[in-house]
Amino acid sequence: MAIELEDLGLSPELADVMQRLARVGVKVARIISRNALDDDLGAGVGTNAGGDGQKALDVIADDAFREALTGSAVAYYASEEQDEVVTLGAGSLALAIDPLDGSSNIDVNVSIGTIFSIFPAAGGPDESFLRKGAEQIAGGYIIYGPQCALVCTFGKGVQHWVLDLDAGMFRRVADIRALPQETSEYAINASNYRHWPAPIRAFIDDLVAGSEGPRGKNFNMRWIASLVAETHRILIRGGVFLYPGDERKGYARGRLRHVYECAPIAFLITQAGGGATDGCEQILTALPSELHARTPFVFGCASKVARVAAYHDLPGEETSALFSTRGLFRS
Fold first, then answer.
1. CB-based burial of residue 59 (10 Å sphere; 0-12 exposed, 13-18 middle, 19+ buried)?
2. DSSP SS3 for 19
3. I need a surface site. Which of 16, 67, 151, 317 has the fewest CB within 10 A?
């Protein structure tokens, strides 16, 4: 047994898939801990289907998860590292995965992770994944950091496991509580400020203005450049994350993938009482156009996510200074 699943009421097929994911998670955690001792896990080895550079660990993790799921109830395997969906068998489930999120952080010893999403298989590869995220039956991640943890939802709250290194398995700890509605932290890559659409710039301007601005309080910015690490922080202590589309070539829809990054994270966040949108529309009700489709992504405390959407409703010519005169933005 690689993970404690008692009392969750999972089907035998889903429980088996979770055991297989957990076993690979333990293996990948060990591999990461030996970076530079055995191999250079951050070495470039090519590009993936989305045009992003692949690191050695991206490929190692993808191979490990795909091989472990062969012979399981997973019929279709959709990975960031594969151009197309891989058919593994004739099972009843479809699994989408980012085998190694945040791989640019491998060499600097910052938390990285695995993100996964599980759907009932539906007729064929496209039908199984090009669907609303609300149809997921499981979504979660494994975070490889100072503590390796697995966080997942099966549609009834958010469960949390921690890797017991001595036992080589994930042990269940207290479930993730509901996100706080008031928070002083936000996450965004501020170096792209000049490229953002006006509503995002205005929202951030009002946060940066702090206690002297329309929000009347000070805020702290966080940016780890690892979606799993950002999500884990927000689930533990609240906050809001923004990765908008912007004016740069190839960034009109942001850089995060809808199917195997944003949909499972949105499932987790909403199960913790938070919100998840593309800035305006709900992620879990949106239909991705293709397997590797990108989407802008805003998630975290529900009130903050709603506030970002409200900024998009104001006239495009207005600036942050004008926003500050509106009572809507004074709290």
1. middle
2. helix
3. 317
